[in-house]
């Protein structure tokens, strides 16, 4: 007030008040009314919180906060708010011995009947803000007393508050020393609180709290968040004096308890006029503040926003987090315990919790120079994705590879970088196959070396053969020398490699033929001066020759490659048909009697839609059915019918009739013919038909038709 | 025009799976601020079109920011002005090369861009290694898009692993098995642990093993089951291994059941087929459960489909005649107009059916069908041999020939060495030496190989009644209707597994290659709901709210539409206590399956 000096420190206190600090005086400016003075005879530091300010001096820490509305409404002297009356009523009720009090209690309740729910709510709320346990109890009892008289109050509100208060009271206890207000607790979220407890080495309490709140959900973000939290804290804790000397949580807790905390008292300074109070935690001056407490609070400020970030994402804390942290601290602290014994101690606790990351604990052990313990621990990790990288990092490469193969996640196998270890992967088929697949598209040369080293000569041969096409694609390689040397050479090399093993004689021969074909094709290109031969198949080469009219060349290729007569006929006939050289075709048919019959000729003509040509060859077909069908295909009903009747085939007749369904004259021919079929034939064919029609569903209607016709035939 | 499938009637909440994937995708895109170019590998693009419509995707980003450009990943440099490039790719080393060449190209031009690479479904060491070796890993931000499952239809899930069969069988890369197990495990997280597992074949037993391991590593939480309690699952998970024969047989026999080449729920056809005027243009026709008429006819034999379409059209015409000739009340008119709404649908399907019937009525198609049945009956070796030989000599399309050859080889447990070499030689001579690599692949996969032991196909065929003599395609009474008389082996196994488990058919299972497995799984030990759940499984009929228990049928290596139809047929049978959900690495047909084995050379 009117000071010329600017304040040394300034801080928000809650939402609507500001603290100003000069040398030995603290001034609080509220939203209305006079400022409040506090005097300090030692220097202080102001630390703003969400709902007040922490005031830290050399000897004590205080918390300054505006008195919550609910507390005011109940405890203001002479207050007549419903909540105050309810509180009063409970007071009277408790002293029930005299009738008078009962009556007052009764009357109080009657007075506030309509606003009973608000009164209950206010009591619950006030209880939450209370630091004094007995007063919390009284307020909660008042709430539950009022609740009994109102039907529409949410019952679990009281239960919920009890839960919160139990947690708060537990952490506020001097052994733990985290004096959280309820609002801070809510903003902080239980998960962060548990994180802090863990960092304070209060594993047991952390475990109990998380169990009590039923928080064993496992949101994925948490792992990440916790890592950061631990990272931030580990530096501060590095020089922690408290060390667990081997007995687990209980020893730790007793160490904690042995701090000479004599008394903690909270006093409330009421100021009715200003409605502000200071719940003050006065620590006994003889109490040496444990370093962790101070450090903790400082550190906490750093970790804060991590806490906030996490808090928005999280709903709960994993039990495993608590146990994990314990295990890690245990490893750090137990340098003298032998691996096997320590493993047992650790497993004993770790197995309590499913889904714990053994790999993370193992990694910690490895960091602490206990590689053997790490190896033992990682054995227990069920997640291969975590196990394999760790095994690799601790040098257990063979086991890592084995595990990766076992779990079926092929990606993990690649982690192993097997490129340098031909020997090891050769023994493991999956690793080998994966390597080959990878190398196939990426490292051809390397793959060749690999196959050579393992004696898979045929695979080298296949690789070489494939390369020959790449060379073919490359114009530089295929031009140059007339017999495109490099390409043929590479194929010949492949051929000789195939020849090394008995099983690949076929491939060897094929490669030989391929090389020969390329030579011939090249010669053809030179003589015809047309670049249309290379890289076509033997058949295509022959066909091109025929189309070009070079029958001698075609014949030469045929004999070079011992093309069978069957193939030769099909090839030549169709080639002649494509250039519509019907004269040559006829000549060809008369050269000698074709060993495979005249079907190729018929088909080629029909496909070229040359009926006149087709008719020349159809009579030469040996099988009457084939004749019938061929005639049908070119639309000659009568000829078809004649052939079919020679074949004495009812099914065929039926089918043909369908083909000529539009043609009344033709279909009558078929009917007459069918009449002529003998009874036995008909019966036999009936069965035939049924089988066939099963296979040709779209002939089913015909089947029914022919059935009826046959029946009619039998009757006649 | 393509629509994402309607999943409302699915027996489990598939919509939530899809919505999750949508959300994750949008988050990825939102996290990269400002105008960006999204580069997708083309295969992934197909899968994504089942998750979200491109138009919606674009519209979502238009008002928010400066829009989004879509590109397909290829080796060519990306043409865009955006300074931020987001790659969304399958985690395959092959694709990483494209990305690297893209970035190198930008660098050489002095373009400065921000690169984000999101791997589907997760980042892998191999891919990152490629980036490292190209010294680009510091330039790209790496993320993951965990797309493990794509709902294709209300009862079909796809893992979108089209190469899994080849990778497992030829390369020995079992990575896809891990992926499948992971996907199933993810499903379990949503819908609860699957208590009974049956598996047949090496790969599927492998999947079951990995699944068990995952359950041990990351147990499905009991609380999750409570959360998804709407869904009381207690299904024997039956996994038939398509890797040996069965799916091949299915895929190789022509699919007589309606559509032939449906790619991810839509077909691309010449516009002229659909009766549109634009010649030569391709249009995409969506085909999935969203289309009511398609839903009705898709599982029928093609011949029957034609009849139904004819009926519909006739009744429509009749209505129309009535409408014009007799006087009608307003409400009658209203009904009629309502019916008219389905007209475009009917026209569309009639167009499609017409288009298909041009194939199915060809003699070559019928001949093919005939020979396929002859091969499956396995009685007349010589006829089959001659037929295939002739096909090669006529140089019919290579895939058609291979279909038959593989079928022939499988039913005979391989071909005698002399014939095996003969066919291989003829193939190389006719189609070119570059196919040696494919032949090698097929041999490694055991699809086309030389005979080493006597075939037991006849025994299997008889024991499982694979060839059914009298099937009525219009009113089928057995799954054999899908192939007009041949019952797919895989579905027969499912039928047995559902009815009675593996035990009664143990002897037959031993005849088929690969191990089999039957196991019960816990995972409920801590759960209070354990009793109620196991109660459900013991008496399936008592499942509350009328829902049937579920069976997840997983096909490792792919499934055909015909097999799906057969399964749907099973689930509509009276006395069937289960809803069937099909999960597969990819929907295949003979063509696509064989294509995965082909290697491009030259």
Automatic annotation (TrEMBL), chain A:
Taxonomic superkingdom: Eukaryota
GO terms of molecular function: actin binding
A Gene Ontology biological process term: vacuole fusion, non-autophagic
Chain ranges of the Vps16 C-terminal domain: 356-661
Gene Ontology CC terms: endosome; HOPS complex; lysosomal membrane
Domain Vps16 N-terminal as annotated: residue spans: 6-157
InterPro entries the record matches: VPS16, Vps16_C, Vps16_C_sf, Vps16_N
Alphabetized PANTHER family for the sequence: VACUOLAR PROTEIN SORTING VPS16, VACUOLAR PROTEIN SORTING-ASSOCIATED PROTEIN 16 HOMOLOG
Family: Belongs to the VPS16 family.
Designated name of the protein: Vacuolar protein sorting-associated protein 16 homolog
From TrEMBL, chain B:
Top-level taxonomic group: Eukaryota
Residues passing through the membrane, by range: none
SUPFAM superfamilies linked: Sec1/munc18-like (SM) proteins
Pfam family, one: Sec1
InterPro entries with a match to the protein in the record: Sec-1-like_dom1, Sec-1-like_dom3a, Sec1-like, Sec1-like_dom2, Sec1-like_sf, VPS33_dom3b
GO biological process assignments: vesicle-mediated transport
Family the UniProt entry places it in: Belongs to the STXBP/unc-18/SEC1 family.
PANTHER family: VESICLE PROTEIN SORTING-ASSOCIATED
Full protein name: Vacuolar protein-sorting-associated protein 33 homolog
